Structure formats: structure tokens, C-alpha cells
Amino acid sequence: MWDVDGKRYLDGSSGAMVSNIGHSNPRVIDAMRRQMEKSTFGYRLHFETEPSERLAAKVASLSPEGMEKVFFVSGGSEAVESAIKLARQYAVTVGQGSRWKVISRFPSYHGSTLGALALTGYAPLSDPFAPMMQAMPKIPAPRAYLDGIAMDDPATGQHYAAMLEACILEEGPETVLAFIQEPIGGASTGALVPPAGYMQAVREICDRYGILLIHDEVMSGGGRTGKFMGGEHFGVAPDIIAISKGFGAGYAPLGAMIASDRLINPVLDAGGFLHGHTYAGNPLACAAGLAVLEEIETDDLMGNAARVGAVLKSRLQNLMQRYSFIGDVRGEGLLLAFELVSDRQTMQPLPKALNAYSELVELAYAEGLIIYSRRTRGGVDGDHFLVCPPMITSVDQVDEIIDMLTSALDKFSAKAGL
Ligand code: PLP
């Protein structure tokens, strides 16, 4: 990317983990141009359009078996809202109207609309709106590394999954509708990969209590982890999936809710899903989405994300030898993050006054590298940084990213006296 002064940047975070196939892809632009010449709008209650039907078929073929129904929206929050509403309408339809609570995790981010914010475990964003939304029960995300528990201990996954069961029992299973989680964490946990056994145990607990499992793949879906859905890494299929971000890859506002026939069919039989947005399934957005998926398949960009992601992750891990204040490097494929700490043993965060989360981003920016940061631990303390370049990134560009990041980290450590 070049700014108005001609300064060059490497987009090391794909914007907000969106531009998965890079910027200005000529084939996607051409597909959009061709669609624009045909039609740019068809009201979904009058017509389905060819691009939306083709994209739905493509998404269904890339989704876990049995998840064949695709409902288009224009972004991540809308996809999450659609998931909550479908779950609720399904429960009402099958005579389980007492179920309405959606358990989520802390920290988490599920969107900015009131319903999605009620699921979001990130107090600075949700607290100001508290009286206007129904806060939902939350359990801790499995960040064992912060709790002094080994991530690779076989008991760790069970330990965190047991918190879901405890929460369900406390709330009353007959009131719990669904559990929502990011299979591989996004900005809230900084690319958290769950401990072994966690995802399977969560699925089993949801099944035992008749609770729907929703995967928020808004950031982890679309291929950047090396698989189309982050959940695929664990061999666990949810009941509903929300995707967006890399799905439209920045070419068009696009998202989708994908659901199993088991859920959708009773709702359709009872008269249809009581939800929708005027612009949903917009043919131009769907043509862009289709061209993005074709690009990913033709150039094996998921394979590239897995291969180049492994190189980038090991280079980031090497930086831990040089900087004692990098406490953790984590993630999968090209959904990677590192966390800064003052003590690697205790994982205590850096002093808040250092403002690491904005300082390091600024220093990287000056070098010509864009990275994405968040105050972690629920927005209270701690700093992590997402390094998530597009899926077209080469190993040479990884070298360039690491060189710029090293310069930025050198300057940060000198300035912070670390
Ligand atoms: N869910 C997750 C995991 C996200 O990362 C985001 C956005 O960052 C959202 C939902 C909300 O998406 P949007 O900003 O497109 O509404």
C-alpha cells in the first residue's frame, strides 16, 4: 500500500484481517466490473440472483458436511445477529421456547450491534450500553498460559470445557439456547488456539444439554488459518457458522450465516426465517465473494497460508530469543499474534503507562509495516499484536515483515527501557 505521500507499507494485518488475497486483484475487479454491467441489485424477496446462488453452492461445498444452507449478510455483526436469531427461532419452532441465553467467552469479540455486543466479552465496548442490551453469561476463554497451566497438558482442554458445563448448570440448562466461540481467536484473545481436547469436549457438552454450538469464524474463516474454517483444525462441526471479513476480502461488504439442514428445515417448514436485510445477497458483493474464493482455490492460497504462516510463526518465535518481553507467539496459518509481557514466567503484562499497544504500532508504521494491536485480557491490561498478512504473502515478504518488526521492537525496547 502507498499513502498520499508515496510512502510504501506492507499490510501486515490485511487491514483488520480482511484483505486476505491482497489489494487490487485484477481478476476480482474484472468479475465485479462484469457483474456491474449486468445488474447490481435484485431484491431478495423478488429474485435470487445468479451470483448469490453460485456463491451459496460454493460456500456449502467448503463448509462442514450437512451445513448446506447459506444466508448472506453484509458484515460480521450481521452474521452473528443472524446466528442468534436463527437459533432462537429454531428453539421456538421445536417447542423449546424457554431457551434464550447464549453463553459466550471472556474475552471475545462478536460485533458491535446490541445483540452481538451482548455476547462480546470486552467490557470497554459493551459496558456503556449495558442497560440497553441483555448481558449474556460468559465463561473464560481457555487462555491457560495466563493461568499458569500448560497449554499442552491433556487435562487443560477438559478443565476449560468443564467451565461451560458449570455455567450451563448454574443458568439452568432449559434456559440455555447456544454457546458461541471463536474457534481460533481473533483480536480479543490474539489468535488463541484452544488446548487439545477443548473443542471436542465443548461439542460433547453442548450435545448433552441440547445446546446449539455457534462458531464465530468472522476472522478465522475464509482460509487464512490454512483451512476454510478455523474449526476444521479440530474436526468439530458446529450447528451454525458466522463468516465475513476475508470472505469478501475487502472487495465488497459481505458475510454469511451457514447452518445445518437440521436447524433450517423446521424453520422453513414453519414459514421461513424471520430475518433479513435489504442489501443482503447483493449480486455485486456475491460476484466479488465468488471471485475471491476462485482466486483462493486456483492459486492454492490456503496451502500458501499454511506454509508461509509456519515460516512467519517460527520467525516470530525466534524474536523471543532477542526480546525477553515477548511472552507468547501463537496462532495458526496466517492468523498469528504475539503478546508483550514484563515477565515471561508469570506472564504479567507490561506497565500500562508504556502504552505498548499503540507505541509499537506507531513505530512499525514508521518502518512501513502495518500491524494490528489490542489491549488484551478483556481490555484491562496487557498488549498483543496480530501479524496477519494476506494469504498471497511470500517468504521474502515474511523476511521484510520481520526486518521491519525487529527495527520497531528495537526502538520500542530502547524507548521503554526494557
Ligand atoms: N466477530 C468477530 C470474531 C470479529 O472479529 C468481528 C470484527 O472484528 C465481528 C464479529 C464483527 O464484524 P463486523 O465488524 O464486520 O461487524
> How does the major sheet shape up?
7 strands, mixed
Tell me the domain tally. 2
Distance between the termini: 32 Å
Oligomer type? single chain
Shape: globular
CATH topology of the largest domain: Aspartate Aminotransferase, domain 2
Numbering strands along the chain, what is their spatial order in the largest sheet? 2-8-7-6-5-3-4
Task: Write up what this structure looks like.
The protein is of the alpha/beta class and 418 residues long. The protein folds into 2 domains: 131 residues, Aspartate Aminotransferase, domain 1 (Alpha-Beta Complex), CATH 3.90.1150.10; 273 residues, Aspartate Aminotransferase, domain 2 (3-Layer(aba) Sandwich). Helices cover 40% and strands 16% of the residues. It is built from 13 helices and 14 strands. The strands form 3 sheets. It has a 7-stranded mixed beta sheet with strand order 2-8-7-6-5-3-4, sandwiched between helices. A hairpin with a 7-residue loop joins strand 13 and strand 14. Helix 3 crosses helix 10 and helix 12 crosses helix 13. The mean pLDDT is 95. Bound molecules: pyridoxal-5'-phosphate.
